[in-house]
Amino acid sequence: MVSLNPKIFIKKGFRFIFLLYTKVNVTLSLFKSHIPKEETPYYAHLKASYTLEAAVVLPIMAMILVMVLYGFRILQVQTCVESALDHAARQTAVYAKAIENDETLLLCGSVIAKKSIKKAKAPTEYVSGGLAGITLINSKASGDYVELVATYRMKFPFPFFYKKTATIIQSSKSRKWTGYNKENIGEDDETYVYITPSGKAYHANIECTYLKLSIRTVSVLELDRVRSKNGNIYYACPLCGRGVKTGMVYITDYGENYHKSLSCSGLKRTIYHVPISEAVERGYHSCGKCY
Ligand SMILES: [Zn+2]
Ligand SMILES: [Zn+2]
């Protein structure tokens, strides 16, 4: 979560420059048009407008350029903090198995995050209070997740704005590496079953043959003779099987498609462990083989 979006900041900055430039130009041309050209030599009015441009427009443009560059600095700090938080949250999630005390765990996460920010050479001179100004005091580690929250203030490097700061909040959440707890799952007395996103049946046993993917290879030339265990022919996988004329392809016993690539997502299987009521609600029926 970020309270100040640098992309919008930069976009607004550019629009502001453009508007200002047009306004100044209009003012200048009005100023020029008031000069009676017959009486004033051409070079004189040219000189004056250049002087005005150099004295007024140039410093303003320079300041705006600094503002835009400052926008990039905010972006740089945010990117560094974000990747440091991600890294630290993941590391802390692993330590959660060994460290049971939430406070200690968060302290650990905070140290890792600060180290990573330092290592990434984030321009912390733009942060109010420097590296120490980035606080992770709002982080949480209760329950199954570790959430590291970094809060800091960006300084404005412009005159008249020295006292102004922009608060930025960023966070990263990781699930603790504590595994799943069978005791907790049984607590609500509800039976849990296994389902797959593409399947139609729920299974009592994760070892059920319908849940297992038995990948084997066949020659493309054999495909018109090979049938799946449901008795269906195999079609080309829309992701990887189109236009395959020769060689070997991958099929599964209960699959519908043949695949050219072993790493195709069509060959992977996601299994969810859900309460039986949820499976029924989602239109699954009991498996004929294991239920
Ligand atoms: Zn089954
Ligand atoms: Zn495929």
Automatic annotation (TrEMBL):
It comes from the Bacteria. The chain crosses the membrane at residues 13-31, 52-72. InterPro entries: Rota_VP4_MID_sf. Keywords: Membrane, Transmembrane, Transmembrane helix. This is TadE-like protein.
